[in-house]
Design brief:
The protein contains four helices and three strands. The chain is α/β, with parallel strands linked by helices. It has one domain.
């Protein structure tokens, strides 16, 4: 599986018919007032994946090529602005985001069907 990880899953949730619910790191304050930090690359490595953190979206094409050539799950970490559409990653990656199995919301049902269709072409992690 080739995945790009951001510091927020807000756009992933919103683009798949889900509502936001206090899921930005900026909303998760520690007792000392500092913003919580997660080393997504190290987290992925701890689970057996190959990972790398990019310092610029300009590095993405080369990293994506390495990921496609990898023999197991490869995580590419790119910090992005979770709010600005202009700053949103334009890498056209397919995101693995959980969706409700039961909903009365037609928009969410449509997005869930599109998600299942996209999942059919997902390369399984090794």
């Amino acid at each position: 599986m080739i995945t790009a990880v951001s510091r927020s899953s807000t756009n992933c949730k919103n683009n798949t018919g889900n509502e936001s619910f206090n899921n930005l790191l900026e909303d998760c304050r520690r007792p000392d007032g500092e913003v919580a930090r997660v080393d997504f690359a190290k987290h992925a490595e701890a689970q057996g994946a190959i990972s790398e953190k990019l310092s610029s979206i300009d590095e993405f094409d080369a990293a994506f090529q390495r990921a496609k050539e990898a023999d197991r799950t490869y995580v590419i970490v790119v910090d992005i602005d979770p709010v600005s559409p202009a700053a949103w990653s334009k890498c056209d990656c397919w995101w693995e985001v959980g969706l409700p199995q039961v909903t009365r919301n037609e928009h969410t049902a449509q997005k869930a069907a599109e998600w299942e269709e996209g999942r059919a072409t997902q390369r399984r992690g090794v």
